[in-house]
Each structure stands twice: as structure tokens, then as C-alpha cells.
Amino acid sequence: MARQDWTSEQVKLAFHLYCQLPFGRLHQNNPEIIDLANLIGRSPSAVAMKLVNLASLDPVIIASGRKGLSSASKLDRAIWDEFHADWEGLVLEANRIREVLGDTTPTIDPQLSDQLPDYTGQTRAQVVQQRIGQAFFRQTVLSSYHSRCCITGLAEPSLLLASHIIPWGEDKANRLNPHNGLCLSALYDRAFDQGLITLDEDWRVVLSATLKKAEPPLQKHFHSVEGQKIEMPERFSPDPQLMQYHREQVFVG
After folding, report:
1. Per-residue confidence at 214, pLDDT binned at 50, 70, 90?
2. Which helix (H) or strand (E) holds 31?
3. pTM (2 decimals)?
């Protein structure tokens, strides 16, 4: 049979999945890759190869000494560039394509779906889209950090959060940008969100004056990590400019 070229829609779905999988899971036996292959009518090996082609465009993967395949196409590069400029567009477009193809896999946790407000029409649709985006952001950020808190190394998924460097409500363009994310356990996520901790230019933990004067039970959680460098992610490294914003606009100093 003649080889069929990848369509734009297929590459978009492949990139969407690439973002959410650790580099070490880009293989044909991964159930998520098999599911995508079945959805788009390609073999698991072909999908895995496409994901590794996309990895060859990833500067963080390249800088780490690893290499993807060298046969990324012009379309691969175009999709890569398109959605690095519009992460929310990627998520919503990928969800639309899946629906058109008849995918019945929930795009958000069914428990969260059940908790959606009882709105109708456009308002409810906006809430659903927001939840879909949040699910993508969480999965992509946690995957990049191998589901470990970048400060403590804690690896219990139920206690991990995908923290926004620039808060969700303050920068729509970067809401779903994984470079705007850190994987933090709940306590440190709350402290980061409230500006009680931040990271310096060398990615070391900085404590606010409030935490430095905190009661001993709280001090033990933070004084031990002051000046400690975070564990950097496998992909989607935090953006230095976004972190500068956090230091200047969110951190209470």
C-alpha cells in the first residue's frame, strides 16, 4: 500500500499527545499511543515515530543530549510553531478533532464533569473548555516533571499541582503554556501562589520575610529548602521572563 501523508489534523493530535507524555514513553506499546493510532487509522509504530520526530524539534530534548528522529516534516514544524504561539488553540482544536473522529474518551475527569455548574448554553460551554484546558495543563506539566514536586521531590499524584507562574487570571495567552508551569506539592503551590516564595534567576528558592519569621512548625517546611535549586523538568522548562514577573508582581518580598 502507498504511504499516506499525515494530515494537519493528525499532526495536531500527535503534538497534543506528545506534550502530555514523558520522552521515555514515546513507544508503540504505550496504550495512549495505541488509542491515538486507532482513532486516526495509523499503526502504533507510525504514531510513535511521529512523536519522536516531534521530539527532534524540542530544544530542551536536544540540549539534554537526546535526539529524536531527523525526519520531521515542514508540516510538523508548522504545527509546532503554530501551537507554541497559541496553547489554548491547540487544546480546543485537538478536542474538536477528537469529537469529529468519534472519540468517546473523556477529555476531563468525569468527577469534575459532574461538578460543573448547572449552566446552560454558552456559559456552560466556556466552563467545559476551561476544564479541558486545565486538564491538559496539569497533565503536561506533571509529565514534564515526572510527577515529582520540583522542590521536595514528593511523588504522590494526589498531592501534586500544576502551578501557574503568572496566575491564570492575569495572562490569557499563557494560561495553558507549559513553560508557565511548575510541578509543586500542595503546601508549596499555595505558598508560591500567594507570593510567599519565588525562584531567583538561578532557579533557587527565595523565602519572603513572612516565612522567615514564621512559627517553628512552619519554618521547618521552608527554611530547609531556602536557596535550594529546583529540579528542572525534562521538557517545557519554566520561562525566565515569566518567573521574573512572578518575582516582581506576585512575590511579597
Report:
1. confident
2. helix 31-40
3. 0.87
